[in-house]
Amino acid sequence: MKESTQNQTDNKAFTEECHTVLTAVSDALYVIGGKWKLMIIIAMARGNKRFTEIQKQVTGISARVLSSELKDLELNGFIIKKVENGYPVTIEYELLPYSQTLEELVGAMTRWGIQHREKVKAEMGSEKSNKQ
Amino acid sequence: MKESTQNQTDNKAFTEECHTVLTAVSDALYVIGGKWKLMIIIAMARGNKRFTEIQKQVTGISARVLSSELKDLELNGFIIKKVENGYPVTIEYELLPYSQTLEELVGAMTRWGIQHREKVKAEMGSEKSNKQ
DNA sequence: CGGCATCCAAATAGATACTG
DNA sequence: CAGTATCTATTTGGATGCCG
Q1: Are A41 and A103 in contact (CB under 8 A)?
Q2: How many domains is chain B built from?
Q3: Does one domain contain both A25 and A41?
Q4: CB nearest B109 (choices: A15, A25, A48)
Q5: What is the largest CA-CA distance in chain A?
Q6: Which of A67, A92, B70, B130 is paired with A78 by a 20 to 30 Å CA distance?
Q7: Does B111 touch chain A (CB under 8 A)?
Q8: How many other CB atoms are there within 10 angstroms of residue A37's CB atom?
């Protein structure tokens, strides 16, 4: 994993690999980017299926935005909207198997978020009592 | 990984774990969310250090936005701006070690982006020649 | 409850020109 | 080259009210 000798050869491969990675990350961000999509999927993976349940878990999201995000998620094959006819009609959203492909990504992001919060906390303490 | 018996006990733990995960992901998105930050870090990790180099790699970013994003990244400890006095002054941005904590996340996102693109491509093919 | 329509405010981003 | 300033256009989002 360490190299420093022949850089000319590396540079070209690096540029190509860079483009590949940038394209892939760009693709991913296009589909699951934004503040809410991953958070909605996380909330749903913990058993929240109803519109208002999800809205309660995902702090700060408005009904309009949640509605729009759910549509996007359905279009992209992560969830499905189920309408049960009865008195009254109940509507539930369910995760589809494809949403499980995000597990690794969500796990990585969760771990990073936790360690980042701790890093920030540690910096706060070590900045010579620089309170605001 | 399969459970269905005692759901009451699970639900409470689930709700707490849900909140933990949502908070962590929210923290992460706050710092590295948006279209550009990860892409800039990826480009820099492949050796791009100059402003225009980065702008060339990260397709579509404007100078104004790149400038603003670089400032954010510096504030959050991912990069450092180095000014070398000479004729003319050269300015380089370098990754700091903290940016390496993102490797797992970037890797997960890259893999997901690649597989997602392939899934979409496969769907295109299987949708009875439904060209647009 | 689960939304959608409307209106309006704020944030974001593109284009262009300009500077040291 | 490495930005900044300005202006404008577009996107996004909150608030509210309404509907089945």
Answers
A1: no
A2: 2
A3: no
A4: A25
A5: 73
A6: B130
A7: yes
A8: 18
- Tokens linked to A3: 């190299």
User: Before B88, cis peptide (omega within 30)?
Assistant: yes
Do residue B26 and residue B14 come from a single domain?
Answer: yes
Answer yes or no: is pLDDT of B8 > 90: no
Q: What range does the domain containing B22 cover?
A: 1-32
For residues B17 and A96, give the distance between their C-alpha atoms in angstroms, rounded to a whole number.
Answer: 21
Residues B5 and B70 in one domain: no
pLDDT tens track, chain A, 132 positions: 544 445 566 677 878 889 999 999 999 999 999 999 999 999 999 998 999 999 999 999 999 999 999 999 999 999 999 999 887 899 999 999 999 999 999 999 999 999 999 999 998 888 766 554
What does B10-46 look like in DSSP terms, one character per residue? HHHHHHHHHHHHHHHHHHHHHHH-SSSHHHHHHHHHT
E-only strand ranges, chain B = 79-84, 90-95
B5 and B41 in a single domain? The answer is: no
Contacts of A22 in chain B (CB under 8 A): 39, 42-43, 57-59
Rounded to whole angstroms, the Cα distance separating B2 from B13 reads 15
In this prediction the pTM is 0.89
Note whether A62 and A35 are within 8 A (CB). no
